[in-house]
Each structure stands twice: as structure tokens, then as C-alpha cells.
Amino acid sequence: MKLRSIIGTWGIVAVALLPGAAPIHAQEPVQGPSSDKAASEPVVKAVRIVRESDGHLLAESPTGIFVETGKPLDREKVAESLRALYKTGDYAGLKAVVTPVTDGIRLDFVARENLFFNLLRLEGLEPPPTESSAAAAMQIGLGQTYRKQFVDEALERLRDTLREEGLYQAEVSAETLPHPDTHQMDIVVHVKPGPRAHVSGIQLKNETAYKDARQFTPRSSGCSVS
Asked: Using one digit for the tens of pLDDT, what is the confidence trace for 74-88?
């Protein structure tokens, strides 16, 4: 399970990926009241969700998680928050990272953002094929998780379809239009059809070991029948 590989069996709950960040390590069992243990934890001053690739801020003080600002860090709530974020389907590869700040820490949930195919539009296509046939050939399912590999494979299927219609020199490319606020991705496919090949004639060439049949006229034997 992906979550288990991040949290482990309760060793390191968070992995430090950002400059200056500090990982959260499991503590040795503490004797005494639970309030003493909580008091030893740093206070959470801010909670964010940031993009793994570039650290871009995706959400500040996100809802639906269990970690609370202004309170000591609770590792169980960090784990519960990771599970809750996974369940939304909006994120993948989540990691919890802490960074020291004045009088406490900042907790960042570092994630790969999931976007979903929302719209597919083709521009420049000259039928045949029709736009609906070309879109069907691409096999992109609306609502499917966006991956660049899926788009590349879809464009290759479109090229095959165009070649079947005589467009052997067609050029296709895809433009992506992300909508991070709704976790959606629009795909605009640009088509430069080029000249369409046409059949001008058919020639049959005998490449077998047998010679072509020849027409001949039987010679007269000089005999007549009365």
C-alpha cells in the first residue's frame, strides 16, 4: 500500500524534501501523562499543501484534515490527515514535511497533484475522419487521471487514423490547459492535415514464376467439312 511505504510501521512519518526542512521521527515511549508528551511537541504554526515538482502552494490551511494550527504536533493526526488527502483522489505521492519557524513549525503536505481529463477539442481537422471519429480513436476517457503518456499514446493513435484516410503527412500536437482550482485538464489537439493521397489508377504486375497469358488465334488447318 502506498501509504504504508511513506509512514512505515511507525518509524519516520515524514520525509524532509525541502531546504531547511526537518523530518518527524518516532519518539521513544514517554512515561507519564499524555499531556506531558504533547507539551514536548513543537507547536504547528501553519499547514499547507505544496506541489512536489516546484514547491508551488496548492492550498493553505486546507480543510478536511486533522492537524490543527496553534496546537502541538500530533503524529497520529498527521497520519490521519495523509489518509484523508489520499481519499480525495486529488493528490498522489503525499509526504509530510516540517520546517522550523518562529515559535514552532510549519507542516507541509508535499504532493503530486492529480488532474483529470475534462475536455478534448480538435482544431484544424478536415474530414474524413469526422471530429467524433478522431476523438474516439484517441481513446481518452473524460474523468480519467491526466498523464502525459496517455496524451502521447492518444496522438499516435490519431496519426494512424489520419493515415488510413490518406493523410500521410498530417502533423498533430496537443496543448494542455490545466484548471488547478477544479483539478481538471483540457486538451486541445491541433491538426495540420497536409495533402490527402488519392488513388489515380491500379496497375497489376506479375512477379510470379508464371508468364502472363497471351491471346492467340488458332491457325486454319486448310480442311473443310461439308
From this structure: 999 999 999 999 999
